[in-house]
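Deliverable D2.4 — example input (structure tokens):
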């Protein structure tokens, strides 16, 4: 009970701190790489452009993911009919077997 209440109160705070800290640490690492390879300093316009491009790419990936899920949902009938066909084929194959399911030594079937 105490653990659940603790997680309820502090888990959102912890994730928010991790997200903000991740952005800050990522920017610092990018700045260190820039200094190591002697690139010119980042402009505010460059940072905004990178943020805009990353948001666009994330949105595009979400649209592709949603389209795939929609297609998967629409093909549900095809999946069920294929599984029914496979089950019917297996039933026909099983009904053709004659004799025990395990091979018996010395007998040819």
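Example output (designed residues):
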């Amino acid at each position: 009970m105490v653990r659940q209440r603790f997680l309820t109160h502090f888990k959102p705070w912890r994730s928010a701190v991790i997200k903000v800290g991740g952005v800050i640490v990522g920017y610092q690492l990018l700045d260190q790489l820039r200094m190591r390879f002697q690139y010119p300093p980042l402009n505010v316009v460059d940072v905004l452009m990178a943020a805009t491009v990353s948001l666009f790419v994330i949105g595009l990936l979400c649209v592709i993911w949603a389209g795939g899920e929609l297609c998967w949902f629409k093909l549900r009938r095809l999946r069920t009919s294929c599984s029914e066909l496979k089950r019917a084929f297996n039933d026909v194959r099983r009904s053709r077997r004659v004799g025990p399911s395990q091979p018996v030594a010395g007998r040819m079937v």
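The helical segments are 2-36, 44-74, 76-96.
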